[in-house]
Each structure stands twice: as C-alpha cells, then as structure tokens.
Amino acid sequence: MSTRTQGTRESDQLLPDRVTMPLLALVTREAVDQDYVAAAQRRAAGPAGPQPRSRLLGAAAVTAVFGLLVALAAVRTAENADVDEASRAALVDRIDQRKADVRDARERVQGLEDDVDALAARDAALRRDLAAATQELGRLQVTTGFVDVRGPGLRVTVTDNPDGSADGRVRATDLRRLVNGLWSAGAEAVAVNGRRLTGLTAISQQGIAITVNRGPLTPPYVVSAIGRSGLGARLQATGTGQQFDQLAQQFGFTVARDDEAELELPSAPDSFLRLRFAEQPDQSPNVQEDLP
C-alpha cells in the first residue's frame, strides 16, 4: 500500500506544472507570464520599425472616411440650418402678414362700426322726422277733413223762422258766417248735416236750397264742430259769430247751441282727394279770333 503511494508521488513530481496545477491558477499564471514575456521582448527588440504600407493606407482610409463623414455632417448641419433659417423667416413673414391682415380687419371693423353709428344716428333722425311728419299729417288730415275725428265740441242747430216768410229762410251766406266763426274760434273739424267740410268745400245757394259738397241740404241745419273746451264762448266773441247772431235775431232764425262731451265727424268723400290743376290753353288761331 505504502509502496503504491510512494510511486504515485514520484510520478506526480515527474509531471509538468501544466498537468498538475489547478486549471484556474494555471490560466492566471500563464496569462501574466505571457504578458511579461511579450513586454520584455518588445523592450529587447528596441524601437519599433516602420509600419507596413497597407496598414498606413488603411489608417489613412479610415481617417479620410471619418473626415468625409464629418464633412457630410457639417454640410448637412449647414443645410438644415439654412432650411431652419428659411423656415423661420417664412414663419416670421406669415406672422407679419397675419398681423397685417388682423390690423386691416380691425380697421375695417372700426370703419363698419363708424358706419353703423352714422346709420343709427341717421335712423334716429329719420324716426324723429317721421314722427313729426306723421303728427303733421294727422293734423292736416283733421283740418282738411279727410279722416274721421272724434272729440268734444259744439253742436249748433239752425232752423228757418217759424212764420215761413221768405226773409226768415236760412241762406247759404248765413251758414258760411256761422262756419267761419267756428273756424276763427279754434274749431278743428266742422260738418254740416253730417257732411265734412274741407278746403275744397263750398257752401252755396241753389235756388232756395243750400248745397254742401255739391249735395243739397234740408233743414234743420246742424253744424257740428270739434274743438277744445269753451268753443261756444269763443264763437260768440268772434266778429263773424256776432254777425250770425245779429242776422238770427233780425230774421227770426231758431238757434240752439249744445256743448257736447264727444262728437264724431265722418271724413270727406275720397273723390275730393283727386288732384286738380289748371293748364294754359293752346293759343290756336281760332281761340285768338274768339278773343275780344
């Protein structure tokens, strides 16, 4: 047994370290030893000789490629910078244009607002003028007799002398004095027997008949006038009103005056609204011969 063990130890001593040394220790030692050996060999050999030409060409090619890449990157960067600058300039131009458009739009809006204000002022002025014209139209319609009216006033009823004498018969001139007295007293509208008086109305005598608006009247003659309170008293204070009273007393007319809280007078016929005008006749030879 001991003889075998001794033989084994002797055989182990005859084996090299590469066989007997553990693998990890062997790898570590050989790596370190080979490094030292390589370094010692380089020192013993002296300075390095010239590099091979192919190796120099390769290095030059690598350097050239690297420089080319740098140059390309620089060119690309410059181009991108130009593009960015152009884009920035275009954006600034667009912003300036939009600002100019906004400024122009604001000026147009201001101009339109001024126009609206001017039109509003003109509209207000036209409305005032329209209101005044409407009021004036209403007044003219009342005074000219072409609109129905209603309001307080005075009713005067005149009849012939009861004795039936010719002198006691009411004439057109008598009614005209009465109507003129009412106008002078401030009457706004007057009607005789329900026939509205206008600026074209004529109270005329046709034989023994009195006509108003080309229509005959029958007694009694009812003269209705619309006006503010006190119309009857103002009528008696006018000259024509006093003349009418004197004629009534002289010829025996029966006159009744009644103050009314509300009277309603119709409008004059629409046929009276027809425009009338005159034309100069042609001076023909025949007409000239007829002239004296």
Automatic annotation (TrEMBL):
<feature type="transmembrane region" description="Helical">
    <location>
        <begin position="56"/>
        <end position="75"/>
    </location>
</feature>
<dbReference type="Pfam" id="PF05949">
    <property type="entry name" value="DUF881"/>
</dbReference>
<dbReference type="GO" id="GO:0005886">
    <property type="term" value="C:plasma membrane"/>
</dbReference>
<keyword id="KW-0175">Coiled coil</keyword>
<feature type="coiled-coil region">
    <location>
        <begin position="95"/>
        <end position="122"/>
    </location>
</feature>
<dbReference type="InterPro" id="IPR010273">
    <property type="entry name" value="DUF881"/>
</dbReference>
<keyword id="KW-0812">Transmembrane</keyword>
<keyword id="KW-0472">Membrane</keyword>
<protein>
    <submittedName>
        <fullName>DUF881 domain-containing protein</fullName>
    </submittedName>
</protein>
<keyword id="KW-1133">Transmembrane helix</keyword>
<comment type="similarity">
    <text>Belongs to the UPF0749 family.</text>
</comment>
